[in-house]
Amino acid sequence: MRKWLSLVYLTLAITGGVLPTIANIDFVRSYGPGFDIVKFIELANINPAAQSLSRDLMVAATAIIIWIVSEARRLKMKNLWIVLLGTFTIAFAFSAPLFLFLRERRLMELERQGVLIDALSD
After folding, report:
1. Please, are residues 65 and 83 in contact by the beta-carbon 8 Å criterion?
2. Which residue range is the domain that position 107 belongs to?
3. How far apart are CA 85 and CA 27, in angstroms?
4. How far apart are CA 109 and CA 120, in angstroms?
5. What is the pLDDT along the chain (122 residues), one digit of tens a residue?
6. What CA–CA distance (Å, rounded) separates 3 from 65?
7. Nearest to 60 by CA among 81, 87, 38, 82
8. Distant-in-sequence, close-in-space partners of 65: CB < 8 Å, separation ≥ 6
9. Is the Cα torsion angle 59, 90, 87, 10 positive or negative in sign?
10. How far lies 33's CA from each of 20, 29, 41, 56, in Å?
C-alpha cells in the first residue's frame, strides 16, 4: 500500500510542479520580462474569487509547512530543505506532495528496519 501511495504522491508532485510552472511562464510572457512578484500578488487578489483562493492557499500552506517541519524532525527525514525550497521556487502544489512522497519512502525504510510505526506517533 505504501509503495502505491508513494507513486500517487510522486505523480501529484510532478503535476504540481508542471502546471504552476506553465502558468508562471504565461505570467512572465504577459507581464515580463522578469517575474514581477508585486504584480503577481496584485493579480492573485484582483477579485473576491482570487482573494478567496489566495487566502485559502496561504493559510493551508502555512499550516502544512509547520506540520511538514515537525513531521520531518519526528521521522528524522533528510533533505527537508529541498521541500522548503520547492515551496518558494516552484509551487506549494509541488512541495506538499513531494514531502508526502518522501515521507512514505521514509516510513517504508523504517518498516524495513523493523521500527514500529505506532511507536513513532509519540
Report:
1. no
2. 2-120
3. 21
4. 13
5. 889 999 999 999 999 999 999 999 999 999 988 899 999 999 999 999 999 999 999 999 999 999 999 999 999 999 999 999 999 999 999 999 999 999 999 999 999 888 766 555 54
6. 23
7. 87
8. 84, 87
9. positive
10. 18, 7, 17, 29
Q: Say which amino acid occupies 67.
A: W
Instruction: Judge if pTM exceeds 0.85.
Output: yes
Is residue 118 a contact partner of residue 30, using CB atoms and an 8 Å limit?
no
Identity at 45, one-letter amino acid code: N
- Assigned C-alpha cell, 36: 514581477
Q: Report the domain count for the chain.
A: 1
**Which residue intervals of the chain are DSSP H helices?**
2-31, 37-44, 48-74, 80-89, 92-112, 117-120
